[in-house]
Amino acid sequence: MDAELLRKQAESIVRKMTPDSSVLFITGAGLSADSGLPTYRGVGGLYDEKHTPEGIPIEEVLTSRMLRERPEITWKYLVEIGEAVLEHKPNRGHEVIAQFERELDRVWVLTQNIDGYHRRAGTKNLIDIHGDMHTLVCPECGLRYPISAVQLDQLPPSCPSCSAPLRPNVILFGDMLPQLQLTQLVRELEDGFDLVFSIGTSSLFPYISEPVLVGHRLGWYTVEINPEVTDLSNLVDCRMQARAAESLELLWDCWSQLHG
Protein backbone atom coordinates (compact mmCIF):
# COMPACT_ATOMS: atom_id res chain seq x y z
CA MET A 1 0.00 0.00 0.00
CA ASP A 2 1.13 3.54 -0.70
CA ALA A 3 3.14 4.99 2.21
CA GLU A 4 1.28 8.29 2.12
CA LEU A 5 -2.09 6.55 2.26
CA LEU A 6 -0.92 4.41 5.19
CA ARG A 7 0.14 7.50 7.12
CA LYS A 8 -3.20 9.19 6.44
CA GLN A 9 -4.98 6.08 7.70
CA ALA A 10 -2.80 5.99 10.82
CA GLU A 11 -3.46 9.66 11.49
CA SER A 12 -7.19 9.10 11.09
CA ILE A 13 -7.14 6.15 13.50
CA VAL A 14 -5.20 7.90 16.26
CA ARG A 15 -7.57 10.86 16.08
CA LYS A 16 -10.22 8.40 17.26
CA MET A 17 -8.07 7.61 20.30
CA THR A 18 -7.62 9.60 23.48
CA PRO A 19 -5.87 8.80 26.77
CA ASP A 20 -9.32 7.78 28.06
CA SER A 21 -9.92 5.26 25.28
CA SER A 22 -10.48 1.53 25.74
CA VAL A 23 -8.89 -0.59 23.02
CA LEU A 24 -8.82 -4.29 22.14
CA PHE A 25 -5.92 -5.56 20.04
CA ILE A 26 -6.51 -8.98 18.45
CA THR A 27 -3.29 -10.49 17.12
CA GLY A 28 -2.39 -13.49 15.03
CA ALA A 29 0.57 -15.13 13.32
CA GLY A 30 1.16 -12.12 11.07
CA LEU A 31 2.47 -10.16 14.04
CA SER A 32 4.87 -12.91 15.07
CA ALA A 33 5.96 -13.27 11.44
CA ASP A 34 7.56 -9.85 11.78
CA SER A 35 9.77 -11.38 14.49
CA GLY A 36 10.89 -14.02 11.99
CA LEU A 37 8.49 -16.80 12.93
CA PRO A 38 6.84 -18.57 9.99
CA THR A 39 3.09 -18.19 9.54
CA TYR A 40 2.46 -21.90 9.27
CA ARG A 41 -0.76 -23.77 9.89
CA GLY A 42 0.25 -25.93 12.86
CA VAL A 43 -0.39 -25.12 16.50
CA GLY A 44 0.44 -21.46 17.01
CA GLY A 45 1.05 -21.19 13.27
CA LEU A 46 4.42 -22.92 13.05
CA TYR A 47 4.30 -25.82 10.60
CA ASP A 48 3.63 -25.97 6.86
CA GLU A 49 3.99 -29.54 5.63
CA LYS A 50 0.91 -31.64 4.82
CA HIS A 51 2.55 -34.66 6.43
CA THR A 52 5.43 -35.15 8.82
CA PRO A 53 8.29 -37.53 7.90
CA GLU A 54 6.39 -40.12 9.97
CA GLY A 55 3.62 -39.91 7.37
CA ILE A 56 1.14 -38.39 9.83
CA PRO A 57 -0.61 -35.06 9.16
CA ILE A 58 0.64 -32.34 11.50
CA GLU A 59 -2.95 -31.72 12.65
CA GLU A 60 -2.98 -35.31 13.94
CA VAL A 61 0.52 -35.16 15.44
CA LEU A 62 -0.42 -32.08 17.45
CA THR A 63 -3.48 -33.50 19.21
CA SER A 64 -4.04 -34.49 22.81
CA ARG A 65 -4.84 -38.03 21.67
CA MET A 66 -1.47 -38.40 19.93
CA LEU A 67 0.25 -36.82 22.93
CA ARG A 68 -1.27 -39.56 25.13
CA GLU A 69 -0.66 -42.44 22.74
CA ARG A 70 2.68 -41.51 21.17
CA PRO A 71 4.04 -38.62 23.20
CA GLU A 72 7.53 -38.91 21.72
CA ILE A 73 6.20 -37.95 18.27
CA THR A 74 4.13 -35.01 19.48
CA TRP A 75 6.99 -33.76 21.62
CA LYS A 76 9.42 -33.96 18.70
CA TYR A 77 7.42 -31.27 16.93
CA LEU A 78 6.61 -29.31 20.07
CA VAL A 79 10.36 -28.96 20.64
CA GLU A 80 10.76 -27.84 17.02
CA ILE A 81 8.12 -25.17 17.57
CA GLY A 82 9.67 -24.16 20.88
CA GLU A 83 13.11 -23.78 19.31
CA ALA A 84 11.68 -21.52 16.62
CA VAL A 85 10.06 -19.37 19.30
CA LEU A 86 13.25 -19.11 21.36
CA GLU A 87 15.35 -18.19 18.32
CA HIS A 88 13.41 -14.96 17.91
CA LYS A 89 12.10 -12.15 20.10
CA PRO A 90 9.28 -9.59 20.29
CA ASN A 91 9.28 -7.02 17.53
CA ARG A 92 8.39 -3.36 17.45
CA GLY A 93 4.71 -4.20 16.97
CA HIS A 94 4.59 -6.05 20.30
CA GLU A 95 6.36 -3.14 21.95
CA VAL A 96 3.93 -0.58 20.53
CA ILE A 97 0.92 -2.48 21.85
CA ALA A 98 2.55 -2.58 25.30
CA GLN A 99 3.22 1.15 25.04
CA PHE A 100 -0.42 1.84 24.22
CA GLU A 101 -1.40 -0.19 27.28
CA ARG A 102 0.62 2.23 29.40
CA GLU A 103 -0.73 5.31 27.61
CA LEU A 104 -4.44 4.55 27.39
CA ASP A 105 -7.05 4.07 30.08
CA ARG A 106 -7.83 0.42 29.23
CA VAL A 107 -6.13 -1.89 26.77
CA TRP A 108 -6.54 -5.64 26.34
CA VAL A 109 -4.80 -8.03 23.96
CA LEU A 110 -6.46 -11.18 22.63
CA THR A 111 -3.82 -13.28 20.89
CA GLN A 112 -3.81 -16.58 19.03
CA ASN A 113 -0.03 -16.73 19.31
CA ILE A 114 1.67 -19.13 21.73
CA ASP A 115 5.13 -17.54 21.59
CA GLY A 116 4.74 -15.39 24.71
CA TYR A 117 6.09 -12.34 22.90
CA HIS A 118 3.34 -10.01 24.11
CA ARG A 119 4.18 -10.77 27.73
CA ARG A 120 7.91 -10.40 27.08
CA ALA A 121 7.26 -7.01 25.46
CA GLY A 122 5.47 -5.81 28.60
CA THR A 123 1.78 -6.41 27.95
CA LYS A 124 -0.07 -7.18 31.17
CA ASN A 125 -3.75 -7.39 30.13
CA LEU A 126 -3.34 -10.48 27.96
CA ILE A 127 -5.82 -13.15 26.91
CA ASP A 128 -3.60 -15.83 25.34
CA ILE A 129 -6.48 -17.92 24.07
CA HIS A 130 -4.20 -20.68 22.70
CA GLY A 131 -1.84 -20.75 25.68
CA ASP A 132 1.90 -20.14 26.06
CA MET A 133 4.76 -22.43 25.04
CA HIS A 134 6.86 -21.25 27.96
CA THR A 135 4.79 -23.09 30.59
CA LEU A 136 4.48 -26.86 31.00
CA VAL A 137 1.62 -28.51 32.85
CA CYS A 138 1.18 -31.98 34.32
CA PRO A 139 -2.14 -33.57 33.25
CA GLU A 140 -2.03 -35.85 36.30
CA CYS A 141 -1.26 -33.64 39.29
CA GLY A 142 -1.97 -30.25 37.72
CA LEU A 143 1.35 -28.65 38.67
CA ARG A 144 2.85 -26.09 36.30
CA TYR A 145 6.48 -25.40 35.57
CA PRO A 146 8.38 -22.82 33.53
CA ILE A 147 9.96 -24.64 30.62
CA SER A 148 13.39 -23.54 31.85
CA ALA A 149 12.91 -25.63 35.01
CA VAL A 150 12.34 -28.92 33.16
CA GLN A 151 14.86 -31.24 31.52
CA LEU A 152 14.12 -31.71 27.81
CA ASP A 153 16.99 -34.06 26.99
CA GLN A 154 14.58 -37.02 27.19
CA LEU A 155 11.16 -36.80 25.52
CA PRO A 156 8.52 -36.64 26.73
CA PRO A 157 9.70 -34.68 29.78
CA SER A 158 8.46 -35.97 33.13
CA CYS A 159 6.74 -34.11 35.94
CA PRO A 160 9.29 -33.55 38.74
CA SER A 161 6.53 -34.27 41.26
CA CYS A 162 4.68 -37.34 39.97
CA SER A 163 6.76 -38.44 36.94
CA ALA A 164 3.78 -38.25 34.54
CA PRO A 165 4.51 -36.95 31.01
CA LEU A 166 4.24 -33.16 30.83
CA ARG A 167 2.60 -31.17 28.09
CA PRO A 168 2.98 -27.52 27.11
CA ASN A 169 0.24 -25.21 28.30
CA VAL A 170 -1.11 -24.73 24.78
CA ILE A 171 -4.27 -25.66 22.94
CA LEU A 172 -3.64 -28.62 20.65
CA PHE A 173 -5.92 -29.60 17.78
CA GLY A 174 -9.22 -30.84 19.15
CA ASP A 175 -8.76 -29.32 22.61
CA MET A 176 -11.40 -27.23 24.30
CA LEU A 177 -10.59 -23.57 24.69
CA PRO A 178 -9.51 -22.58 28.22
CA GLN A 179 -12.48 -21.47 30.29
CA LEU A 180 -10.53 -18.86 32.23
CA GLN A 181 -9.49 -17.01 29.07
CA LEU A 182 -12.96 -17.31 27.54
CA THR A 183 -14.56 -15.90 30.67
CA GLN A 184 -12.12 -12.99 30.68
CA LEU A 185 -12.83 -12.27 27.01
CA VAL A 186 -16.60 -12.25 27.56
CA ARG A 187 -16.21 -9.98 30.58
CA GLU A 188 -14.12 -7.44 28.67
CA LEU A 189 -16.45 -7.46 25.67
CA GLU A 190 -19.38 -6.82 28.00
CA ASP A 191 -17.54 -3.78 29.34
CA GLY A 192 -17.13 -2.59 25.76
CA PHE A 193 -14.37 -0.94 23.76
CA ASP A 194 -13.95 2.27 21.81
CA LEU A 195 -11.71 0.65 19.20
CA VAL A 196 -10.96 -2.92 18.12
CA PHE A 197 -7.89 -3.84 16.04
CA SER A 198 -7.55 -7.13 14.14
CA ILE A 199 -3.84 -7.53 13.40
CA GLY A 200 -2.14 -10.20 11.33
CA THR A 201 -4.88 -12.79 11.59
CA SER A 202 -7.07 -14.43 8.97
CA SER A 203 -9.88 -14.36 11.57
CA LEU A 204 -11.04 -17.87 10.70
CA PHE A 205 -11.88 -18.84 14.28
CA PRO A 206 -15.23 -17.48 15.51
CA TYR A 207 -13.80 -16.40 18.87
CA ILE A 208 -11.25 -14.25 16.96
CA SER A 209 -13.67 -12.68 14.48
CA GLU A 210 -16.58 -12.24 16.89
CA PRO A 211 -15.12 -9.26 18.82
CA VAL A 212 -14.79 -7.37 15.53
CA LEU A 213 -18.31 -8.32 14.49
CA VAL A 214 -19.63 -7.26 17.89
CA GLY A 215 -17.78 -3.98 17.58
CA HIS A 216 -19.18 -3.45 14.09
CA ARG A 217 -22.73 -3.93 15.38
CA LEU A 218 -22.26 -1.73 18.45
CA GLY A 219 -20.49 1.14 16.73
CA TRP A 220 -16.97 0.57 18.05
CA TYR A 221 -14.32 1.80 15.63
CA THR A 222 -12.86 -1.28 13.93
CA VAL A 223 -9.46 -1.56 12.22
CA GLU A 224 -7.88 -4.42 10.30
CA ILE A 225 -4.11 -4.55 9.74
CA ASN A 226 -3.29 -7.28 7.26
CA PRO A 227 -1.61 -7.41 3.84
CA GLU A 228 -4.12 -10.12 2.86
CA VAL A 229 -7.88 -9.90 2.40
CA THR A 230 -10.01 -11.63 5.04
CA ASP A 231 -13.71 -12.11 5.66
CA LEU A 232 -13.60 -9.01 7.88
CA SER A 233 -11.92 -6.73 5.36
CA ASN A 234 -15.16 -5.31 3.97
CA LEU A 235 -16.73 -4.84 7.42
CA VAL A 236 -14.13 -2.80 9.27
CA ASP A 237 -14.10 0.98 9.41
CA CYS A 238 -10.46 1.17 8.34
CA ARG A 239 -8.25 -1.40 6.62
CA MET A 240 -4.50 -0.92 6.61
CA GLN A 241 -3.22 -3.29 3.93
CA ALA A 242 0.29 -3.65 5.32
CA ARG A 243 2.43 -5.68 7.68
CA ALA A 244 1.71 -5.62 11.39
CA ALA A 245 4.90 -4.19 12.93
CA GLU A 246 5.22 -1.52 10.24
CA SER A 247 1.63 -0.35 10.73
CA LEU A 248 1.81 -0.36 14.53
CA GLU A 249 5.04 1.65 14.48
CA LEU A 250 3.31 4.16 12.21
CA LEU A 251 0.34 4.36 14.59
CA TRP A 252 2.68 5.03 17.51
CA ASP A 253 4.53 7.72 15.55
CA CYS A 254 1.25 9.47 14.73
CA TRP A 255 0.05 9.12 18.33
CA SER A 256 3.29 10.58 19.66
CA GLN A 257 3.07 13.54 17.32
CA LEU A 258 -0.51 14.20 18.36
CA HIS A 259 -0.04 13.70 22.11
CA GLY A 260 3.68 14.31 22.56
Task: Give an overview in words.
This protein is α/β, with parallel strands linked by helices and 260 residues long. The chain is 40% helix and 16% strand. The protein contains 10 helices and 9 strands. It has helices at 3-14, 29-33, 58-61, 64-69, 71-87, 92-103, 117-121, 179-191, 206-218, 244-259, and strands spanning 22-27, 106-111, 126-128, 131-137, 144-146, 167-170, 195-199, 221-225, 238-240. The protein has a 6-stranded parallel beta sheet with strand order 3-2-1-7-8-9, sandwiched between helices. The chain has a 3-stranded antiparallel beta sheet with strand order 5-4-6, with helices on one face. Helix 9 links the parallel strand 7 (195-199) and strand 8. The radius of gyration is 19 Å and the shape is elongated. The mean pLDDT is 91.
Summarize the structure.
With 260 residues, the protein is an alpha/beta fold. It has helices spanning 3-14, 29-33, 58-61, 64-69, 71-87, 92-103, 117-121, 179-191, 206-218, 244-259, and strands spanning 22-27, 106-111, 126-128, 131-137, 144-146, 167-170, 195-199, 221-225, 238-240.
Q: Using DSSP, what is the number of strands? A: 9
Uncertain spans: none
Biggest pleated-sheet summary: 6 strands, parallel
Percent of residues in helices comes to 25-40%
* Shape, per Cα inertia axes: elongated
